[in-house]
Amino acid sequence: MLVVDDSALVTDALEVLLDVSGFRARIAASVAEALDAAREEMPNAALVDLTLPDGDGLAIVRALAANEHPPRALIALTGHDDPDTEARCLAAGCHAVLVKPVRPRDLVASLRTWLGA
Fold first, then answer.
1. Mean of the per-residue pLDDT values of the chain
2. What is the reported pLDDT for 116?
């Protein structure tokens, strides 16, 4: 699973949560890092922050969604809880939009559902 966020607090917490929940997480802090990571190994899921230091996280979503074997779950993580942001995310290829802060139990349950795990 690819986790993309420029906040080390967020990625550290998500990495621990995912690890104890049986998921293997790869962390990226930028669009460039995320795309490099996906070229090395396409993730089965991606949690992507929208605001990154080198661009819009939806560029990652669009690139992954266009892959011949895209992730089974492309999830936007955002602090913006508005219809326009949600519509933009879904149009880019997101399967879901989660508004931060996300309850850990809800995130893990959703990932299990999306991944059939």
1. 95
2. 86
Instruction: State both tokens at 49.
Output: 């922050």
Between the alpha carbon of residue 65 and those of residues 70, 81, 84, 106, the distances in Å are 5, 23, 20, 24
Instruction: Dump pLDDT digits (tens) for 5-29.
Output: 999 999 999 999 999 999 999 999 9
Please state whether the peptide bond connecting residue 71 to the residue before it is cis, i.e. omega within 30 degrees of 0.
Answer: no
pTM: 0.94
What letter represents residue 77's amino acid? L
By C-alpha distance, which of 101, 89, 81, 108 is closest to 50? Answer: 89
Name the percent of the chain lying above pLDDT 70.
Answer: 99
- Chain CA centroid to CA 89, Å: 11
Instruction: Give the position of tokens 């560029």.
Output: 59
Distance, first Cα to last Cα, the chain: 13
Provide the token pair at 15: 């990495």
